Amino acid sequence: MSQQPVIDPALAEATSASPIVNRFSIVAATVNGSGSQTSNTAIIRALFRMGIPVSGKNLFPSNIQGLPTWFTIRVNEDGCVAREDSAELLIGINPETFLQDVAEVPPGGVCFYPDHFTEGLDRTDVVYYPMPVQQLLRELDPPKELREYIANMVYVGVVAEILGIELPEIREALLTHFQGKAKAVDSNMAMVEAAAAWARSSLVKRDRYRVERIDKTAGMILVDGNTAAALGAIYGGVGFAAWYPITPASSLAEALQDYLPRLRRMPESGKATYAVVQAEDELAAIGMAVGAGWMGARAMTSTSGPGVSLMAEFAGLAFFAEIPIVVWDVQRMGPSTGLPTRTSQGDLMFVRYLGHGDTKHVILLPGSPRECFEFGWKAFDLAERLQTPVFVLTDLDIGMNLWMSEPFDYPEEPMDRGKVLTAADLERLGTFARYRDVDGDGIPYRTLPGNEHPLSAHLVRGTGHDENAFYTERPDAWERNMERLWRKMETARGHVPGPIIDSTPGAEIGLIYFGSTDLAVREARQTLAGEGIPTSGLRLRAVPFQEEVEAFIEAHRQVFVIEMNTDGQMRQLLQVEFPRQAARLQSLRKNDGLPLTASWIVAGLRHRSE
Amino acid sequence: MSVTTESQATARTGLNRIGLSKNDYRGRPTTLCQGCGHNSISSQIVAAAFEMDLMPEQIVKLSGIGCSSKSPAYFLNRSHGFNSLHGRMPTVATGALVANRALLGIAVSGDGDTASIGLGHFMHFLRRNVPMVYIVENNGVYGLTKGQFSATADRGQKIKRQGENPFLPIDICQLAVNMNCGFVARSFAGDPRQVKELLKAALSFRGTALLDIISPCVTFNNRDESTKSYTWGKTHQAPLHDVTLVPRREEIHIEYEPGQATLVELHDGTFLSLRKLREDYDPTDREAARRLLSEARSRQELVTGLLYVNPDQPSLQETMGQVERPLTMLSESELRPDRASLDQIMQEMR
């Protein structure tokens, strides 16, 4: 061991006086591509298995190897696990960022560091714990190619020992991570145990933080939104998916490819009841989905902002030709290439009107992985019911980070395949026009290719068409068609998921928000209530909106729209849809690429509430 | 060579073997220019489908945007179709035919659609080997926007507004052979018999069947010196062979001198008879196809016929291990995994 930093005696006493149990954040500052993700996930899973509510946010660079990455883990026994602005405990492994990382530790905090570091060890208001990484590596002597990965297990062992994380739960967590591969688990666990043993005999606990087993995660799961979305699509009967690799959406399609072979093969032949195609670009990915949706398969694609830009052309076609497809947009920072590995809610306006002319789209806004699953299957029902593209907007935070969740509910409703006429239907009706508004709801009936009734066939087109799908340039036909499409979007209001409203009696402040900010907003509302500022919350779950959204705005003296983009895009959409309320909507927005924190919301509202 | 076919006999009664008349295969009246090569190709699609007794309801028509892409409205009224986006037809076709593999795809594209804006999609479509008849109605010019050079225009070609084209043309068949497309043919709209026989062969092929059909634009590119004009086609066409498709059900009565004809068996058991006009040409030899196209290009000769054929490549649906039934025909219980499987996954995430 190189240096033992001198601890301020006053600090030592204060820190040992009142332990802080199950209520703190850890940040692991590591080097991208060094395998630290395995270590961090093992810590999260072990904490979760100890019954402690936990979350993990990976703040990673757009890089495969070598750039700094920060992984924050928050434990909170009340379930407040949104990101925090700062972490009390630092695992400082990256020499390039160490000085800055140490400087950001709040007073009374903790710093774990490899014992060969020589600088940044001079804060007297921080408890330092050295970790003999090189020494332990020499003693354990793992295979050369695994050295770097195993080295990251040192901090798992030391942190576990100091905080009280149970080693058997770390083993279980590694078993999950390595999908039961005993050899990988054993070689990593050997280092965890060696490091913990070293800490037990060589370190004296001098900080306040520790964990204790409780029972607040019973029956829950740990999952990321992209996996949840893929599973939702599978249980929604996805027939066709096409995609093009893009951060942070790739893992959605990859989860499809992981789970589909297991869940959707014919029992005897082993043949696939689905198709997943990695397309040559996003133009092709959505084009293929449109082809499959036209045929009557449940078709989807998944992408992020830059991919959505390329999909504009087909989005307009699918809207106008009325082809059901589902498009997942796992949002990252834009404009342009932006920040591929940072989170945002900046595609809202673009997606709502994606396509030239009077194109409009239905948007679903899941607020958690659990809703990603639910909207994963519901989006197909909606797309087929409305015969239009349904966009599901999540973001990097929901999509790629591990969230605690209630288990997913199996879909109880039968699939809604929408207004599809069979050959027998056509025989009975004796007449058919693809784009006729028979029911007055703007949604026409469709026939699928393969329907052999002579009335069935028509030529689908993106050009102007009449009720029979024939090309026409007649002004009246054009207007009729566009009015029907407008009517259809009105009908959509009654089909999309409504907002979740949590009203506080007497509250004069209303908060409107959506998506991944849910946990932060809920925590902020708790804090504000404690300060005597009661608020009501409305979490939007879809565009277009329902009347109750307007009623909520009217019912509150001050209404803030909280979102993660620079232009206040949700506010703008609300202003367009509820012009009478336009002036009453205030914007509370932040767009720095990081998941929103409760303390930022609280500070903003404290400042602006009247 | 002469082939006696039953369908020619039944055609005289006005009905084919599935009881349909030729009218049942027609489309709406064309809105393309009089004398446009594309109309002639539409007629041959009607004739080929009629003579092959295809159920029009089991065919889907696909196209992109452009003059050629309008033509699916002008044939097979009883078939579903999708007039999609400029250059993007291959993507729509891929999704459609993967979703319903029971349907027979006939796609019409143009040289702007395939060789310019959609070149990338075209190449990847060939690479995946999606079973479909892919017709390029190639005239070297953008017609619908009133006469601009396309990527297949000849170097040195002149048109009114743009002057002289300084760039070498893209040879669609060369690209297809290089991408290992299993059926590559070239024809000339002014040779309807050959167009029809190649169409029939393509319709029997289970894989991507590419037909690059030189189809002169009578309005913007029918000058005698253009290799995409009627005059050039008529004087420079060098057919490789007489092509005849022999349907499976018909006894083969082919008269040929030994060494004069090649028989190629296609997936549905039909035979393609190629009576050699060029002694040295073997359409199953990919290198030979490359050489032939390259030589023809340097001589500005229009070599027509089946340039390359290789039926032994897995289709995209086979590569992906898809069920035989169309994905669109699966029941809800086949599409939605059971409750126990979800419980199991939830258990694994604890």
What does this protein look like?
With 610 residues, chain A is α/β, with parallel strands linked by helices. In chain A, strands 10, 11, 12, 13, 14, 15, 16 and 22 form an eight-stranded mixed sheet that branches. In chain A, strand 23, helix 20 (569-577) and strand 24 (585-589) form a beta-alpha-beta unit. By secondary structure, chain B is an alpha/beta fold. Helix content of chain B is 32%, strand content 21%. In chain B, the strands form four sheets. An eight-stranded mixed sheet of chain B has the order 2-1-3-4-10-9-15-11, sandwiched between helices. In chain B, strands 12-14-13 form a three-stranded antiparallel sheet. In chain B, helix 3 links the parallel strand 1 and strand 2. The interface between A and B is large, with 77 and 61 residues.
Helices and strands, with pairings:
The complex is a heterodimer of chains A (610) and B (350).
Chain A lengths: L8 H9 L2 E2 L1 E9 L4 H14 L4 E6 L8 E9 L12 E4 L5 H6 L6 E5 L12 E5 L1 H8 L6 H5 L1 H11 L3 H11 L4 H21 L6 E2 L10 E3 L1 H11 L4 E4 L6 H14 L11 E4 L3 H14 L3 E5 L1 H17 L3 E9 L5 E5 L4 H5 L9 E3 L4 H18 L2 E7 H5 L2 E3 L17 H7 L29 E3 L13 H19 L6 E3 L6 E6 L3 H13 L4 E6 L1 E2 L3 H8 L3 E6 L5 H9 L7 E5 L8 H11 L2
Parallel strand pairs in A: 1-8, 2-5, 5-6, 6-7, 10-11, 10-12, 12-13, 13-16, 15-16, 20-21, 20-23, 23-24
Antiparallel strand pairs in A: 2-4, 3-4, 9-17, 13-14, 15-22, 19-21
Chain B lengths: L5 H6 L25 H15 L7 E5 L3 H4 L9 E4 L5 H11 L4 E7 H7 L1 H10 L3 E7 L2 E2 L5 E2 L8 E2 L3 E2 L7 H7 L4 E6 L3 H13 L3 E7 L15 H7 E3 L1 E6 L14 E5 L5 E6 L9 H14 L2 E8 L6 H4 L12 H4 L3 H10 L2
Helix pairs in contact in B: 2-8, 4-6, 5-6, 7-10
